[in-house]
Amino acid sequence: MTTTSVSTASRNTAELAASALDLTKTYGRGETAVHALREVSVGIEAGRFSAIMGPSGSGKSTLMHLLAGLDSPTGGRVFLGDTELTSLSDSQLTRVRRRAVGFVFQAFNLLPTLTARQNIRLPLDLAGTKVDPAWEQLIVDGLGLTERLGHRPGELSGGQQQRVALARALVTRPEVIFADEPTGALDSTTGAEVLALLRRSVDEWGQTVVMVTHDANAAAVADRVILLADGQIAGNLVEPDADAVLQAVRELGRA
Which candidate among 16, 86, 88, 252 keeps its CA 20 to 30 Å from the CA of 140? Predict the structure, then answer.
């Protein structure tokens, strides 16, 4: 199986949920400038689970934030499907994110005063969109949250809170779910359960997931691992096991 690359000459938008062309991100100016990304071109396949890995400071979180429209590049272009994010105004970008992007964070980012159900429905409320009861019930049942919908975050375990966060990301039926270290605050058993649910959202519910992680075992759950080093694409692994991921990251660290 071959991985998907993107060039300025061609983009197959029918197969790509998100993509970047010659993406550059620089913080600061002059001698103090930090080049987080250097002319990165990458395509995220629709209906697949992609992980982004690399040493600390490699640019993996920066790449995810740019693909998700949470930050603006210094140069290059970013697409969500066939919509160019880098050509949108702030208000247009906000509307696209609310409609087409779901987020799962390490810190859960749930509102403590809202119940689980209210937190799940928050993106719909912000967008002024009605809930699809059948879809909501499907994901609530699938994530094992049926008996917890009336509980507030402080009454839930870490794993249950992350399940609520995942349900919140899924409820809008986004084009892409971006997960930033989603198991970082969880113990290994609970983390494995969350990864299995992300995997299920791809396999059973047709979602596209992009996950930043430093954990080789977590990355091995993905269909593809994109390796970054010094702000550039350093390799791709397709359907790897944890040992292959760990070895690749170690080699990057020694390069």
Answer: 16
